[in-house]
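Bench notes, bay 3.
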Amino acid sequence: MAVVRDGLNRRRFLQIASGSAAGIALHGARVFGQEQKDRPRPNFLWISTEDISPDLRCYGDKYAVTPHLDRLASQGVRFERVFSHAGVCAPTRSGVITGMYPTTIGTHHMRCQGVPPHYVKCFPEYLRAVGYYCTNNVKTDYQFASPLTAWDECSNQAHWRNRPKDSPFFAVINFTTTHEGQIRSPTKETVDRLNGLTVAERHDPAKAELPPYHPDTPRVRQDWARYYDLITAMDKQVQEVLDQLDTDGLTEDTIVWFWGDHGRGLPRAKRWIYDSGSRVPLIVRIPEKWRRLAMPDNPDAVKPGAVNDDLIAFIDLAPTMLSLASIEIPKHIQGRAFLGRQKARPREYVFGGRDRMDEAYDLIRTVRDKRFRYIRNYMWFVSRGQTIDYMDQMPTMQEMRRLHAEDKLQGPQMQYFEPTKPVEELYDTAADPHEVNNLAADPKYKDVLERMRDVHVNWCRETMDIGLIPEPIFDEMKRPGGRFQRTAAPVFIKQTATGEEGGAATIACSTQGASIAWRIGEDPKSNTGWRLYAKPVQIRSGEVLYAKACRIGFCDSELAAFKLGDPVADKPEVTSMERWEKTPDLPSLRQRLMKEKELDFVGPNATNSYLTYLKDPRPPVRYWAVVGLHVCAKYPADLTLAKPAVTTMLEDPSTVVRIAAAHAMCDWGEERIALPVLMEGLKHPTDKMRMFAMVALSRIGEKARPALPQIQAATKDSDDYVTRVAKTTLERLAGR
């Protein structure tokens, strides 16, 4: 079953990736519909908040106190089935800002430093190119540094009020009040807001409705009540912003969006891709004058109080904004518009994934239709209950771990701490909204399972999911030697006199995919006030025109300066630089890895097949072969075959493979020859390779004790995640 209807056709994607498709550059983004070119455009206001599910009164939650958001919903459209593609902020926001899956552009691991393909842009650039004033207050977290060209202003002072007169605007205001960390340790500002709640606005812990996977204890109930109190405090902040819009007389000219970036910031919600971690609220208020623009065929569908139950993915937000702004959606964008003249037909499926979460490695993919959720656990041998230092500071998580240690958890509460996960999970979300009854082995759902499995596999193939490439290897692919490439400096290739007072300058950059920012005069070292280059710049005699070029994932260029009368350069030839997505055998490698991981369904009988994969010339394939042998060789006959083969991999040319082999050999009682490999891995120059070695040492338990000096030294590693794992490992070995 193909998934082309819910994503970008693979052939089309490859055309764009190779640069053969027209209109992929910023300047190729065209106004959609010539008759729209000179018409007024709507303003856009995004109010986003962190770490909440649709736990609002307008979504039917009677425990919630959210009068202002309820009123906003009554004035706009409440979208019922909106899903993030990840359960945590950075991969989520990477997809929102680009309209592409993080698993396609290489921004899928939490807090990685991505180098997306050259054609990927932050979508506000397209808005800026047609005259929008774009501001962000203030969070980015895109998995790459926000380029100068993304925003007119990106700071805690950014506001639509700073725009030039009569400019349409796109303003983002992000609230952190509801963030996970505020539940356990609120900031002074948040405490002040909580103290301002009335008795009627506070939530009684005794009345909280706990999900079946959380234990019912006072500390857990307190976390839930605090979470809802934070939502009420945030609800008031939303109204403060809407009041500002009204005071400025802009309400009827502005389309307002309210959304949460992923599910609630509590265990088994945030970071996970169940509904609890991926389903979010979305409310869009569309003034009457813009309703025909939003829904040309049925303006009543977006009238006040409307409810929409179409499946919507977060990567759809970017193309929908472009559609509403009457800008042609670039062909490489994988999302699809759900409003505006370029509105696509409704989705059948939404997709998502979980990869490294801080210091904990995992690899999960999911597909959801309107009723069923399918989950494929590619690291099924890893417990859900891995240690994540930041998450473990939550009282609810501490309660879960305490009760687990005391053997007091019951029913679905035990699922989180099962030593392994099923290879596949299937949930009927209508009958089982908390997703605790796995139907994957139920023969009554065989057809559903096979359908969703096929959709998942095709989605991974068509979107060119790179998640099976181990992170240290992928890091080397995207940034060889850990070296950041630098964008070439812009050059001035033409000047045109327009009279005695001045002229116009044309700017270009040789780096493929680069955007150019410019400013006249002022402090050229400042990161504010830069404008996006989209057409020749008017400049007066004596003025200095400064320009910088930037490409996502690269270092910005050196500053260039120009005055009228200065010599101009020839138009530079575009250079493609180094591009990981153009690695010659990447498509075949991905196919090979997907084929290899089908052995997860075979179990211990896969030993001979894994032995064959050990001979593959590509390190990622050998890595997963070692991992497969490690987790499957549980019977004497299989271990007899696997152990000699894995022993030879201790001298593999790839450090990742050697670390995986050493981990297996330690578990098999051969720490004398394997531990030195892991200790050597802690000296590797790249942080994620040290991370792999440290994770392996943490998992072998007491067998890591001879490496205590090396683990102690790792607590001072330059990488924060390495130090977290090292400290946790030391605490375990010390019996704490």
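Next record in the batch:
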Amino acid sequence: MGDHHTGQRDLFEHRPEWEEDDVRQGTVATVVLPDGVDKPLDYLVPERLVGTVEPGRRVTVPLGRANREQIAYCVAIRSGELPLAPLKEVIGVEDPAPLLSPRMLELTKWMAERWLARWGEVLEAVLPSGVRLARGTRQEALLVASGTAPARRPTAPQARVLAAAATPTTAAELARVAECGRSVISRLVETGLLIDAGTRQREPGRAAARAPLPHHRPSELSPAQQGALDAILAPLRERRHETILLFGVTGSGKTEVYLRAVEETLAQGRQAIILVPEISLTPQTCDRFRSRFGTVAVLHSHLTAVERHAEWREIASGRVGVVVGARSAVFAPTPRLGLIVIDEEHETSFKQATAPRYHARDVAEWIARSAGIPLVLGSATPSLETFARCLDGSWRMCRLPDRVGGSQLPAVITVDLRDAQSRARGALSPRLVAGIKWALASGGQVMLLLNRRGFATHVQCRACGHSARCNQCDLALTLHQPGNRGICHGCGLITRLPADCPECRAPQLSQRGTGTQKLEEQVRTLFPGVRVARMDTDTMRTRGSHERTLDAFRARELDILVGTQMIAKGLDFPDVMLVGVVNADAALHLADFRAAERTCQLVTQVAGRSGRGALGGRVVVQTSTPEHPAIRSAGRHDYEAFVRHELPIREALLYPPYGSVVRFVVRSHREEAAAAWAGTLTDRLRAAVAAGGEGMRVLGPAPAPIARLRDRFRWHLQVHGPDGERLRALVLQATAGLRTPDDVAWIIDVDPVEML
């Protein structure tokens, strides 16, 4: 986005001497709206607000012919001659102090350009809702549920209001959402069930900290650990930027290196941000950092808006030295930032799935480069983009090839499911069942990975072949028990599945495929009396459920943990003797150029959960394609062999890391409308490529792999090119001035990580 005020500034600063002195002078604020308007707008700052309107604060401005009041972000201020055309005035100031520093304003502008997003979208994304809702006194009071238990059962309208007030909300909005009158809300305020959010936000408000677990601090590091730490300490002490990758096998002590680097950061009086990919990993990471450093700020999606706001204030005050959190914690307002660490940097959860579709790794590098501080990445299975940047010398790689403490990587046993003797009636092969028995008899624990939730992956009629599908999505319904419920994992639709086929009336629909729920049931049947728990998005919905389950497993209150990918990475349980990968091929054949990379990463990561203690361990991988390079490399704990195989393929096809991809997804209630608009975009892009897009190509349009989702038909297309900056410029040129039909919506995803 260029500065559209440059020409005006030149005129103001170089006024001819012969002009009169009574030319209108004043202060102009440049503001960005959160949504709707793409370009910045100028407003006159009235005398009463001069000095309070400043970059980083939000202001209220009139918009459009109706002059409706709109909150906007002030991004620049200038004083001098006013333009001849009259400007509308800023109405008021929302915030008592700037919410965004000059560096954060610069970052958000860069993010908008990098991921082709609106600047206002990015500004909204970097500020937690709890911070944005804490407005000045001009606005209507914000109400929030107090959490107090009601003396009597709430009425149906009261229950709706309390549910809607889980986060701070105005009374008008509560009345609209709950479809009730103001009297219902007033009564809840009188009884103390609703309170002023401002009052609650003035209280400490921070989430209760877990008791820190004992954490051993090794007296000395291994040579590889010490080498990695020295590589980090050099730029840290010299106050310069460098990006350093710790490429270490699972159990090689990467976390201890992080901890030592943070120790040095705090000793310098500075702050550190530690990013982890999954909410399930945050408690364990926090435990380790709390045991070493005491107070730690936590930022993740399971916090309430009030708790997040309280954490935000503590970080901004500088009273907390260590910030741990998921993707958005990279925006934490650290006034003395000295170090950023991204653990399990290969994880796709670091890419935002909705606009603005940023990647936290790229944002972290921008921040680290701007602040002149080190960025540390860690993984046993680095993304190919990261690996390539190390190979070309842009980033530094430190290898940690061995486990610390003398433990060895576990032996991996591959079970070929194409062999009739390897198959069983259930999901577990005889070899895997024998391995589970061996681990339990030896006093160890077991982890079983199946990256498919539910009871059966689909339900089908044996007679006519009809399968139960979502009527809003192009997806089979997944059977969940109890209740014989068919759930769409695309839109969340829940329906009761019929006993007989709705097409041919044949009885008893057949349940096909296995999900984690069915696997859990089979394990309980095969091993009666064994303590089993399941971790997937169905069982981990309530707040604190991740911590409770993992704490129980760590305390040996559970023997077998069944789960999806959330159990595959970053977890350290010394008593796990066996890890079973029930279906290693689950994602291998998806329509995604990263499918093989993700499969190798997932199998390698979950295999690394085994054998970390004195008892040793084994891994059993069930697969129908044991010869695939991803499976073969994971089975040998040789991720680098997979990288050497995959990189030439990516280079030949101009896929990342050797090229950039921009994906378009078009949605509409009508398939012909989605197809037509996808065709229009394709024509514009191909014309732009023909006119000057050397080395670029357009693929598509075609129906998306999931062709219908949430009652919208989906078409997609891709543009590939060797240079990301040139590719983004071409996309902007090709899409400029387009007027989207009313019944169509479309998105642009720069460097996507999901292709479905």
